[in-house]
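To whoever is on call:

I kicked off a structure prediction for a single chain this morning and the downstream step that reads the tokens threw a length-mismatch warning. I double-checked the sequence; it's 413 residues and nothing unusual in it as far as I can see. Pasting both halves so you can look.
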Amino acid sequence: MAQLDLRKKLSVLADAAKYDASCSSSGTAKRDSRGGKGIGSTEGMGICHAYTPDGRCVSLLKILLTNFCIYDCVYCINRVSSNVQRARFSVDEVVELTLNFYRRNYIEGLFLSSGIIRSGDYTMEQLVLVAKKLREEHDFRGYIHLKLIPEADPKLVEEAGLYADRLSANIELPRDEAMGRFAPQKDVGVIKKAMANVRLRVEASKPAKKDRARPPKFAPAGQSTQLIVGADGAPDTEILDRSASLYGGYGLKRVYYSAFSPIPDSSSALPLSKPPLMREHRLYQADWLMRFYGFSAPEIGEASTGGMLDLAIDPKLAWALNQRAQFPVDVNTAPREMLLRVPGLGLKSVDRMISVRRYRTLRLEDIARLCRGIDKVRPFITTLDWTPGGLTDAVDLRERLAPERKPEQLSLF
């Protein structure tokens, strides 16, 4: 095989990494080198852009160690039977790339995954070695996200958590039975066991108040996973149920959703076309409702049609239209939990409203100032000077609140 220069390797392996959506730098411990010690930082503004919950944009060098793989997962572009250009970084090349990109202020951290080469143990060992060299030899204090190889020795996984801020093992398919059809060399039980071990180590690394000696930090930003949308036929409600069980069972920080993308020479068992990108967006919105707004997966699913979320309107509005008997709510007396269920009201808006209503009775103009738009909110609330009357139960309310669709070019074929 012809030898590739570093620039060509970077082009191949950065492109191969784009299919993994599970990268984010939120939630980690703050480390900073601006005091003159070490290199890198987990803070600040920064060739993958991830957004933290507070809105900061963080740039990560997102690459694969290699796109060679001994597995033959039919949905994966890097499977062993795929006819793609192959490349592989050495450990030292990844280390130097990370440091050089950081020094040029291109990135603030590293997201490193890999195809399986030789064995799970060997691959995990190489990934850990990259993080170890960055931390111990170069005192790199930036963000590091490592992809777990679930079948690797648990000792390697434990070592990875000592150097990485976040770990992730991708479930990939919402349905367990689909794993046997599409990825026969993978074992869902092994993946879940690895995720459970990470959760135990993360919890064990949190010191109790009475403990004087603090245990070593282990993956302070927790763990995440990815679900492919539209590959195995699972409806949105089933995907959300799976996400809810993953959050509850393994203490995940995030579940990422990646719309299935057809690949060359793929199996006839896979769909011929990709799902609408809006479907992925609605799943992220529903996931947000579960994590921050107190919604359960079954509640969100009640407003679905055939198990699929409404693509025209967001999941919270769909739920409210399906539960009109609970509205309107009085913004001056309603508890926070109910205000969070009002379409158009976000976390910050609700907290501001609760703070302001201690000193004055809220009017409609106050709500308009506290939220981004009043049109979606108005049918579901009452204030001192406003009541929606029959608007809440209007037959055409959904059409009034649904965003206007942009004209689309019709296909000739």
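Update from on-call: the warning came from a stale cache, not from the record. Cleared it. Sanity check on the structure: Confidence is low (pLDDT under 50) at residues 39-46.
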